[in-house]
Amino acid sequence: MPRTQRARERSAAAAAPPPVTPVVSSRLLQRQLPPPLGTLPGPPELPGGHSRHFGKNVDPGSDLIIGLDRGSLYIIRIDLQNLDRMIVRSYDLDRDPDNLAEITPISRNAPTQARRNYAITIPQGLNVTDEMLNPNSITRQLVDQISLAKAHLVIAKESNNLQFAGDLAAQIQNSQALLSAAATRQYPLTTEESETSIRNMAALLYQAQQLRYDAATSLVKMKGQVQSLEDKSKEEAEKSIKFGQIAAEELPKALHCFGIRLTMDWFERQSPDRRRIKDTTTTRYLDKLRDNSLHHFCIFSDNILAASVVVNSTTTNANHPDRLVFHLVTDEVNYIPMRAWFSTNSFGGATIEIQKMEDFTWLNASYAPVLKQLQDASTQSFYFSGNKDSRTPIKFRNPKYLSMLNHLRFYIPELFPALRMIVFLDDDVVVQKDLSALFSIDLDGNVMGAVETCTETFHRFHKYLNFSHLLIRGHFDPDACGWAFGMNVMDLSEWRRRDVTGIYHYWQERNADHTLWKLGTLPPGLLSFYGLVRSLDPKWHVLGLGYTNVDPSLISDGAVLHYNGNMKPWLKIGMDKYKGLWDKYVHYSHPLLQQCFFSH
């Protein structure tokens, strides 16, 4: 290179203005970048004390973003549609050089692009889950920045860089305040209000990158941060399960009010009404309760409204509702309000019998193992004191599983000795088809007809029973199909002949120490009815409406819809998309329901 040319270049380089604070020109960022907290390293010097030379002729009106790369200024020509994501993640500056446009020096006197007007459209409502799942949302980007800043904060403190740690802590608080404001007002953050916080945090994160802490130390701290977040996530998930279980066990205030008002209404009625209710003991009524030519259903429940929905939905969709007989069994607390409700409402001419289990004097601790276990101190500790063994999930310690109402299904032939066939319905189902065809199904010598649930591996026997126990392993197939309670056809004559209740007692006594199974009535049911169940068409019984996702085609074709799970339709935690199927069979126009559900 000629000596004169080199001299001219050295002279031009010496006359070049010093580097300045970077300027961002774009759809979102047109203002001058505020100086970061702390001092960023300057551009590296070339041999001879000269600064790095860049190109010329930058159009200030074009869509450019100016950043830092190893202390030097550079300009990137970017796609405006992806600008949000690029800016918020500006701490990751190791970009592909192929994306760089012409790199040009910036003069201190270079004009900045005029600020553009923001067109802000505020979405109605704030769905935090959607915001966090969207990688381009400002909420998600702020959370990502905060997580990374917290990791650098720990490293800065341990490296005794307290000034930088304080700057990070202050900026973390600012970003968290923005997120809190968005949650309070119930609509997402806008670009304009979050711009400064995002830019300042990006500058701090870049500065943390330039401090170049020991890589091994940084890696250990990052892993520790990830582990801490995973532990916290697990803890919150366990809390969610626990609180959901508690919510499912509690009686809503409206239902409590409903029972009390029904009881008051019962005792305040005038004598003619009371005589009309006593007329249910007529010979014609009693004959219907034993008539095997009619279609009999049994329901065991302490939930008046839920039982009403089962009866109402069954009669509404029946071709001949006057041929239906419902046998409802409840406890002493709900007996009067249950009678009051069903005696003053019409259900298509169906016959309805209300009984309380306390009247079955033969059902005592000397006969029923469950009642005997309930009196045992260790069982009471297991179910009611929480059991100090934290390895046992809370759902396995739910006292409702020792409720005799829940276990009456194993005594159906003794409860209704005159009947030969009956259909058992849980109180968390809705019927949307005529069920008369169930009574003509040939069970092929089996005791029960039920819908199998073995399409998934977690519904097989090994899911419910302890196959490490020799007694279980020696008698049952771990891959045998499970089935569901909720809608079951019972051949009571065959039940009595095979003494299924005696088999149930045998297994309940063997499980006194809770080593064969832990949860509910289904495990002893699987054991008691093993080899005695005929599989029914899945359309008869559709499960899962108390969870999250059920195939809509299954719901539309299903005869009985089962809200198994914690999210019952009468609870606030119930699935909104499935509540309408249940609500349409509730007489919300009834004065008592109006008082309890819609008055404050």
From TrEMBL:
Annotated EC: 2.4.1.-
Molecular function (GO) terms listed?
Answer: polygalacturonate 4-alpha-galacturonosyltransferase activity
Instruction: Please name the top-level EC class of this enzyme.
Output: transferase
Compositional bias ranges of the Pro residues kind: 33-46
Where in the cell is the protein located? Golgi apparatus membrane
Does the keyword section mention Aminoacyl-tRNA synthetase? no
A GO biological process held by the record: cell wall organization
Tell me the route in metabolism or biology where this protein functions: Glycan metabolism; pectin biosynthesis
Q: Which domain of life is it from?
A: Eukaryota
Main location per UniProt? Golgi
Region (Disordered) location: 1-57
Q: Which Pfam families match?
A: GAUT_1, Glyco_transf_8
Checking InterPro entries in the record gives:
GAUT, Glyco_trans_8, Nucleotide-diphossugar_trans
Q: How does it sit in the membrane?
A: Single-pass type II membrane protein
Q: What keywords would UniProt list here?
A: Cell wall biogenesis/degradation, Glycoprotein, Glycosyltransferase, Golgi apparatus, Membrane, Signal-anchor, Transferase, Transmembrane, Transmembrane helix
Work out whether the entry's keyword set contains Transport. no
Bias kind Basic and acidic residues: ranges: 1-11
Q: Name one GO cellular component term.
A: Golgi membrane
User: Which family is annotated?
Assistant: Belongs to the glycosyltransferase 8 family.
Which protein are we looking at?
Answer: Hexosyltransferase
Q: Which organism is it from?
A: Platanthera zijinensis
Give the gene name: GAUT10
